[in-house]
Write a structure and sequence with these properties.
Layout (H helix, E strand, L loop, with lengths): L1 H16 L4 H41 L12
Helix pairs in contact: 1-2
C-alpha cells in the first residue's frame, strides 16, 4: 500500500513541477496529490485500525487479574 502512495506522490510532484507558476504547482500537488492520497490511506487503513482496536480490547480483557490462579501463601 505504501508503494502506491509513494508512486502517487512522485507523479504529482512531477506534475506540479511542470506547472507555469508556483501557485499552480502547489494547488496541483495539494489537490491531485495530497487530498486523494489522504482519502486513499484513510479508506484502506480502516481494516487495520479495526483489527488493532479489537486486539487492544482482547488484551485488556485477557490481561486482567481475575484471582483464579493459585499462588503460594507467604
Amino acid at each position: 500500500m505504501y508503494v502506491i502512495a509513494i508512486a502517487w506522490l512522485y507523479i504529482t510532484v512531477l506534475m506540479a513541477a511542470t506547472e507555469p507558476n508556483i501557485t499552480a504547482g502547489i494547488l496541483t500537488f495539494a489537490l491531485y496529490g495530497l487530498a486523494p492520497l489522504a482519502l486513499f490511506l484513510w479508506l484502506f487503513g480502516t481494516p487495520q485500525r479495526r483489527r488493532q482496536s479489537a486486539r487492544e480490547a482482547v488484551d485488556d480483557v485477557v490481561g486482567q487479574d481475575d484471582g483464579a490462579d493459585t499462588r503460594r501463601d507467604q
